[in-house]
Design a protein that fits this description.
Elements lengths: L19 H32 L9 H12 L5 H21 L3 H19 L5 H4 L2 H16 L6 H5 L4
Helix pairs in contact: 1-3, 2-3, 3-4, 4-6
Length: 162
Amino acid sequence: MRPTIDSPAPRNTLLIPALAPLYHFGEPLAYALLRVCYGVIMISHGLPKLLGQAHGSMADPMAASINLIQNVLHLPAPALIALFVALLEGVGGLLLALGLGTRLIAAMMGVQMLTIAGLLGPTWPWIDRGMEYPVLLAFLSFYILFRGAGHHSLDHTLGREL
């Protein structure tokens, strides 16, 4: 039977219906953990830039970002753009983890990830550059943007969301 405008769509039934309460209870927690994990990952990229600390193979990740923006991407004001990126990753990551300003931060991170994927990976060198990560994070950003902060967030606690 096909649903019409007047009739509801058929509901999917669970293979193990007894698990429904677990799914109902666990979904908001799982979503909150997903959002927090993404925020922490971004903090781990932004904080070293902001603090001038080494990160992975980069002795000075802020200098590396400025060099990339200036000499590879040829964008104006590379130091200012690098500072914005570091703040988005560091402070924005913290806000995302806390669930504060979630939709706005997710939108900005999504644009950043799509920009990284588009400018630095047009040939999709997955093995050498790992472009699957910014693409996945872009889609995760847009999912968070459309879903919102969720129940376990400061946005929800404060009773507001963008």
